[in-house]
Design goal:
Strand order of the largest sheet of chain B: 6-7-8-3-9-10
Order of helices and strands of chain B: EEEHEEHEHHHEHEHEEHHH
Strand content of chain A: under 5%
Structural class of chain A: mainly alpha
Helix content of chain B: 40-55%
Structural class of chain B: alpha/beta
Number of strands of chain A: 0
Oligomer: heterodimer
Helix content of chain A: over 70%
Number of strands of chain B: 10
Largest sheet of chain A: none
Strand content of chain B: 15-25%
Distance between the termini of chain A: 30 Å
Radius of gyration of chain B: 18 Å
Shape of chain B: globular
Number of helices of chain A: 12
CATH topology of chain B: Rossmann fold
Largest sheet of chain B: 6 strands, mixed
Distance between the termini of chain B: 53 Å
Order of helices and strands of chain A: HHHHHHHHHHHH
Largest interface: A-B, 29 and 33 residues
CATH superfamily of chain B: P-loop containing nucleotide triphosphate hydrolases
């Protein structure tokens, strides 16, 4: 059998097992819904009244909804590494690594499952946004663009999380680093304020932050009146490039978990 | 003639592993013939798990050669993986999946498809004695049921060599005996070589055709259980053999990680 096709089937096998686990225990998805509710329902509502952040013709709540969707994806995916460390402690990683499956297929399978999880997360954020009367675009192409961006973002941040897990190897260290990384990624992006309001040094950092490109695509596709600063194709290109790099790194580091 | 000789299931020469200044495995030379159950004994920290990790391609050796099922573990790791099964000391079946899902995942990663996969999964459930419980989540199983499932999972693809790292640790006597019966059944049915690490002298006596004792990373003796006992004294037991070759290290108890893993496995087995 062709090596590439075999790798696809192996990734599908890992993703399928992960999805079965998620279907069986959706509590994490529900608990992850709390944060978007707070950000949109409390922070967004208050800042809409204050009008402290210039968002052009968009209401602030509409402006930040794509950012909160991206944040929700980031926060959910970035702790994916905890599950990997758990699997290491249980010996599941060892068992996967003695199979002839491609290492990249094993980590890609995990990323694909995170992508699916991200889509479910997006549905939850959409429900919150609808409740708060955010002006959502319902055309097919923008919806597909949102879905693709959410999927790509989840793959990126779950792979990033897997790389960190492979380096730190313990849950305690991972929790510390996870907390340290998420907030800078969030604040050094255009999630809750436009890029042109940032000081120049922060704009430079934001340019290297994949969350910026995810938010930018979402802002153009999710909200009526929203627009993207960068071309959508370019943003997807950058996201895919980051994902490919992280995937290669994760595939290289993943076997180290069994040592 | 040399080319007519059967290929050894496992063959190592001068196999060594160093972690910085610690020598975990020191020039180990070992041959395990096809169809043999080989027991690797030694106190905690002797290098048993390191040896098994190198032979299963999870860890690179620092020096020396290792061939499993005729393939070099360093040069042809994927070919080795196609031909081996591995049951880690830790309970590696995924508790959040059912037995059938666990088996299907392994089967798919070993490239089994369609009717072959369905038949192998069915056979594996029967082998593990879980035909009626295949749809239950593994976390609801007893320790013995999980170990039987793991052995079935590791042998779905009918490997030439099966590695087990302390497979009966924490099991009650009945479950332990069942695991032994399953391993003997596998050897008889498929003629596979089995390498098992253990602390349990009764297990070594009942199960193993040949034994090797690791002491501070060195393979200090190998032989059939009867030969080893006779070499120590007329009424010697395997405990005597073990103490004779591993001496005071018996009390050393191993390192923190090994103890944590052993206790974790025992705790999960309930």
């Amino acid at each position: 059998m062709n090596g590439m096709w075999r790798a696809v089937l192996e990734s599908a096998a890992v993703a399928d097992a992960e999805m079965r686990k998620l279907r069986r225990d959706p509590t994490e998805l529900l608990s992850r819904a709390v944060q978007p509710v707070l950000w949109l329902g409390v922070f967004g509502q208050v800042f809409s009244q204050v009008r402290g952040i210039a968002t052009g013709s968009l209401r602030y709540l509409d402006f930040m909804a794509p950012g909160i969707l991206a944040q929700s994806i980031l926060f959910s995916a970035i702790f994916y590494g905890i599950a990997i460390i758990w699997e290491r402690d249980l010996g599941i990683v060892h068992k996967l690594l003695v199979t002839p499956a491609h290492r990249s297929a094993l980590v890609l399978g995990k990323a694909l499952a995170a992508g699916m999880r991200g889509l479910v997360q997006a549905v939850v954020v959409y429900l919150v946004a609808i409740t708060l009367k955010v002006d959502i675009r319902w055309e097919v192409l923008p919806m597909l663009t949102v879905a693709a961006a959410v999927f790509a973002g989840s793959c990126i941040f779950s792979s990033f999380s897997l790389v960190i897990a492979c380096i730190v190897k313990t849950r305690e260290r991972f929790m510390g680093i996870g907390q340290v990384l998420t907030m800078p990624l969030f604040f050094a992006s255009n999630a809750i304020y436009p890029l042109d309001l940032m000081p120049p040094w922060l704009q430079i950092i934001a340019m290297f932050n994949p969350l910026t490109y995810l938010v930018d695509v979402l802002r153009g596709a999710m909200i009526i009146g929203g627009s993207s600063v960068h071309a959508v194709g370019a943003s997807f290109g950058i996201m895919l490039g980051v994902f490919a790099t992280l995937l290669a790194l994760a595939a290289r580091l993943y076997p180290g978990l069994a040592r | 003639m040399a080319h007519d000789e059967p290929i050894a299931a496992i063959a190592t020469a001068g196999l060594s592993k160093r972690f910085n200044h610690l020598v975990a495995l020191d020039r180990v030379t070992l041959t395990v013939a096809q169809g043999t159950i080989f027991g690797l004994l030694g106190p905690n920290g002797a290098g048993k798990s390191t040896a098994i990790k190198i032979l299963t391609t999870l860890l690179d050796a620092s020096d020396g050669l290792a061939r499993v099922a005729g393939f070099d573990v360093a040069k042809d790791p994927v070919e080795v993986r196609r031909r081996i099964g591995y049951v880690p000391q830790l309970l590696s079946a995924d508790g959040a999946l059912t037995a059938i899902e666990n088996l299907n995942l392994s089967a798919r990663l070993y490239g089994l498809r369609g009717k072959t996969r369905a038949a192998r999964v069915r056979d594996a459930l029967a082998f593990a004695g879980l035909e009626d419980l295949g749809d239950r989540l593994v976390r609801t199983y007893s320790g013995g049921m999980i170990r039987r499932l793991e052995i079935a999972q590791a042998t779905l693809h009918v490997p030439e060599v099966l590695f087990l790292d302390e497979p009966t640790i924490g099991l009650d006597p009945v479950a332990r005996r069942t695991v032994w019966d399953k391993l003997l059944e596998l050897r008889q049915r498929n003629g596979m070589a089995i390498l098992i690490t253990t602390h349990d002298m009764e297990e070594a006596e009942v199960l193993c055709d040949e034994l090797g004792i690791l002491h501070q990373g060195r393979l200090v003796v190998t032989g059939k259980p009867e030969e080893l006992k006779a070499g120590v004294g007329p009424a010697a037991t395997l405990e005597d053999v073990f103490a004779h070759y591993s001496g005071a290290v018996l009390e050393s108890g191993g390192n923190y990680r090994e103890i944590r893993e052993s206790r974790s496995a025992i705790r999960r087995l309930g």
